[in-house]
Write a structure and sequence with these properties.
Helix content is 44%, strand content 13%. By secondary structure, the protein is an alpha/beta fold.
Length: 351
Amino acid sequence: MVMAARPEVDVAGAPVAAIDVLGLAGAFAAALARTALRLPWRGPASPFRNIAVATTRESVRSLMGYMTSLPIDEFRALEQALDEVSRLVLPPFVKAQGVAMTSGEVGDVPGLWFRRPGHEPTATIVYLHGGGYIGTSPSMYAVFMAHLARITGCEVFVADYRLAPEFPYPAATEDVVAVLRGLTSAGIASERLIIAGDSGGGGLAGSVLHYCNLNGVEIPAAVVLFSPEVSLVLNEPSIRENAALDVLPWNIPTNPYLHGFDPQDPAVSILHQDLSKWPPTFLSYGGDEVMRDALRTFATRLTEAGIPSETHEVPDMFHVFPFLLPWTEESQTVYRQIHRFLESAVPGFES
């Protein structure tokens, strides 16, 4: 259920949404023009790969900048249009990987299941999509989730948790905790559960673990994080140093989600949590991220807390590159590393 389908959410009408689609097309055209002027074939790899990376960087940055400039009802209308395009275009790519995508509901929370037909899943991954706590939907993640299901052998449930500003903190945390409880009530042991997420979804995974540890809820066996938002203070030097290199805008919005809540509270900031009760953790991020410094601190704190962890900082890559550039060798390497990590972190894990 994309946010626009929820009865509590206001959505702009079709004429306004059509104008916004045209505006987005113009933003993309401007992004491509800027990319061409910056000699995108130059870089650390082949010209083709360098052009693809540069084009993706500028396009995603333009998408985020344009959408967050809109009133919220127009934002939701445009998000709905992108969700509909994803539902139409992406399923053949999911099927091509030998993965089935079906709608479902766990703990009264809607979402999408990704499973390999005829294959007994090795474990269950609860995946929390990114989008800065304010946007995107499970269907937009279809290809990435198909990769994850195919390579790990796990079944993957992408929770369609509530988003801000209509539903600020703690709505999303409540939804994901309900999913975990729903799965364990259905007979899936916590030892066979993995929580994963990227960007805001990665930060949300931290909020969920914090809640579980404080309230006696069984935590999953492992955590897999791609460029998680481990801090919402956003005051590290890399915010400025990598601003021209990352896909994220330099002015990352956090107020819609926090809605006055303290950004340094452990409930929303992984860097301010007691990490000693975390399960084994896999962390991947790019060296060109604006949040690089915070992620380095997080990796250090995991080690200091004695948590079995595996960290991969990939040079010359930006925010959530395994999702945005799944075909690159860097992303394929990350997928293989996840499989090896789960084999060591989850008891009895077999692909």
